[in-house]
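Please decode residue identities from the backbone states below.
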């Protein structure tokens, strides 16, 4: 006799236990009933659901298969089996089960929706969209499908469609905090920051313990430059979930931007306490040490980031910058090339590679790197300026002028580009134009290195005596009192007959351009010999 006729009250009781979360009690009851009715598909399906709820998916799959064997047209059992197989990572079998469920019941909206979830996990986004849309064709107010569709449209970059489905989900379910949060993400990606803030705030008002929404709100405030508000939002997120490393990392980013480097390091270290392999945080710590001129520590941090994530292009690039700074040029080149191999359109890495190649005298290769960077991002003023520097070395002065003018066109306040333009114009004996370029650079950046000396040299070469005495005094005073890099020592020799001042200018230049290096071993004092030994020194041997 069927349990549907004799034990209906027991089944209702089991379902009630299941619905209230008393899964083990429900499982004990259904297994007891199965002893009397082992071939009942409904009881086997319920047993599968209990096992699935308890996380015992293999046992759940066995009972769903039994239910299907006893009732081959059992659409709900196929549906449940599809979910269990998904949990077990058997995605192809999960798809087959959902499709069987849909063949038996084409209006099974949940099956269409969950089939879309499996396709999405497999990266088959077109099939995922089709499945979600079929679910909505059956049930237009199916919130989960609107929500899932929004995520797929975000992945494929169709942000307007993403927002449309999120807004529809919210219309159907106004208190859907996750949808409000996701809507904020969409608005942020579109640059609609005020709308993003409103969405995140709405999500938080619905769910005050929504840590992720507080974190996302902080991200918007940080992008807007409202760092105090960003700080508050990240701290709110951490108050809710203090052991989430991303929140600590983001808090560190704000402290870094505020110039509070010690606080930033504390936050980054907190992130690493929860996730020692957090590559982004190791990279961020490297940036802090680089800013503090602790280059060896920066290099160690970048390398830790790369151990955690060998495909982290930014860390390879940053490592290259630090290696370049300590004069390990070959290693720097390897780091830049690795970054580019991971991310071929990495304009900064191409530019940085050009810088090192120029230092090594590989000018043609340097030009090629700068041109590769500009092919990716033509509006980068730094790269145009760097290209101009190499073109000067190659004596392609007209092309260098074009590069500097491009840099200035993109960034009219690029003082260094104005200064470099002045150098080329001086080489072409166009001293009046050179003076104009130098003075523009000085006007933009009062402490621009050696700019005062450049102006003086151009004036001397063009017999322009206007303000010459005052400029000479200014250069002299800056050298005496502030040790500033105001004039090249060779230029000074032709202007001021003061050996002490000339020595000061030379020392400043040498310490700046050729700082003490520990790359070579220490040179010991040469032993005394009976015979005098004479060494010949000349700056022209290189010629």
């Amino acid at each position: 006799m069927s349990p549907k006729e004799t034990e209906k009250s027991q089944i209702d009781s089991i379902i009630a236990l299941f619905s209230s979360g008393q899964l083990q009690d429900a499982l004990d009851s259904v297994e007891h009933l199965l002893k009397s009715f082992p071939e009942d598909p409904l009881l086997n399906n319920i047993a599968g659901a209990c096992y699935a709820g308890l996380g015992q998916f293999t046992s759940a799959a066995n009972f769903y298969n039994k239910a299907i064997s006893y009732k081959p047209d059992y659409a709900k059992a196929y549906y449940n089996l599809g979910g269990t197989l998904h949990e077990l990572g058997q995605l192809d079998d999960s798809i087959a089960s959902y499709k069987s469920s849909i063949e038996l019941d084409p209006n099974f909206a949940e099956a269409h929706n969950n089939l879309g979830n499996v396709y999405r996990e497999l990266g088959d986004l077109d099939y995922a969209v089709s499945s979600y849309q079929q679910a909505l064709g059956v049930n237009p107010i199916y919130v989960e499908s609107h929500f899932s569709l929004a995520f797929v449209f975000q992945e494929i970059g169709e942000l307007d469609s993403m927002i449309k489905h999120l807004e529809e989900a919210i219309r159907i379910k106004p208190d859907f905090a996750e949808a409000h949060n996701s809507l904020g993400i969409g608005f942020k990606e579109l640059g609609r920051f005020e709308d993003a803030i409103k969405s995140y705030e709405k999500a938080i008002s619905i769910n005050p313990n929504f840590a992720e929404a507080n974190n996302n709100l902080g991200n918007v405030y940080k992008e807007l430059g409202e760092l105090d508000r960003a700080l508050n939002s990240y701290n709110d997120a951490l108050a809710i979930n203090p052991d989430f490393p991303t929140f600590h990392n983001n808090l560190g980013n704000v402290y870094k931007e505020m110039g509070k480097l010690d606080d930033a390091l504390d936050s980054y270290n907190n992130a690493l306490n929860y996730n020692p392999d957090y590559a982004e945080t190791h990279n961020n710590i490297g940036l802090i040490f680089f800013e503090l001129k602790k280059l060896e520590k920066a290099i160690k941090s970048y390398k830790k980031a790369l151990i955690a994530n060998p495909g982290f292009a930014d860390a390879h690039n940053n490592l290259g910058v630090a290696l370049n700074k300590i004069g390990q040029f070959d290693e720097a080149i390897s780091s830049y090339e690795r970054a580019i191999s991971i991310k071929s359109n990495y304009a900064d890495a191409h530019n940085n590679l050009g810088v090192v190649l120029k230092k090594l005298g590989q000018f043609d290769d340097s030009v090629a790197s700068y041109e590769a960077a500009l092919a990716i991002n033509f509006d980068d003023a730094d790269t145009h300026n760097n290209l101009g520097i190499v073109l000067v070395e190659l004596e392609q002065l007209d092309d260098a002028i074009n590069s500097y003018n491009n840099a200035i066109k993109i960034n009219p306040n690029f003082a260094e580009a104005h200064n470099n333009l002045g150098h080329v114009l001086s080489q072409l004996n166009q001293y009046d134009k050179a003076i104009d370029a130098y003075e523009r650079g000085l006007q933009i950046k009062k402490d621009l290195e050696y700019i005062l000396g450049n102006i003086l040299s151009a004036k001397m070469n063009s017999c322009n005596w206007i303000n010459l005495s005052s400029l000479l005094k200014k250069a002299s005073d800056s050298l005496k009192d502030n040790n500033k890099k105001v004039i090249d020592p060779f230029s000074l020799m032709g202007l001021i007959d003061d050996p002490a001042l000339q020595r000061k200018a030379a020392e400043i230049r040498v310490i700046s351009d050729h700082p003490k290096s520990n790359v070579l071993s220490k040179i010991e004092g040469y032993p005394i010999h009976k015979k005098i030994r004479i060494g010949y020194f000349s700056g022209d041997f290189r010629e």
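Observation: The two ends are 108 Å apart (CA to CA).
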